[in-house]
Every structure is written in C-alpha cells, then in structure tokens.
Amino acid sequence: MKFSKVFFFFFAFVMAMSTTSARPENFFKELERAGQRVRDAIINAKPAIDVISDTQKVWKDFQT
C-alpha cells in the first residue's frame, strides 16, 4: 500500500517535470533578440556619451 503511494507520487512528479519546460522555444532567436537589445541600447546611449566627451574636452581646455 505504501509502495503504491510512493510510486504514484514519483510517477506524478516525473510527469509534471516532463511536461513543463523553462527553456525558450528557439534558443538562437532569443539570442538574436538579446543582441538586438544590446545594439539598440548602445545606439540610444551615443548622445549621452557625446555630451560627456564634449564636457571632458571643455574641462581640459579650461584647465590649460
């Protein structure tokens, strides 16, 4: 009797783990999307980096 309960719960656990999946459907598509997000973030950060660079140039000119 106890063995049948243990077997039932083990079988239910195995079935639950086999039907669920945490991995993405297409790994390479997800990787490409991540790369596109990084590229877009770099493009969007360029104006801020230009301002910092210009400020550093002005500060160096001010000090000399």
From TrEMBL:
Q: Would the keyword GTP-binding turn up in this protein's UniProt record?
A: no
Q: Where in the cell is it found?
A: Secreted
Q: Where is the signal peptide?
A: 1-22
Q: Which UniProt keywords apply?
A: Antimicrobial, Immunity, Innate immunity, Secreted, Signal
| InterPro entries xrefs | CecC-like (IPR000875)
- CC annotations in GO: extracellular region
- What Pfam families does its record include? Cecropin
Q: Which GO terms describe its biological process?
A: antibacterial humoral response; defense response to Gram-positive bacterium; innate immune response
Assigned protein family: Belongs to the cecropin family.
Write down what this protein is called. Answer: Uncharacterized protein
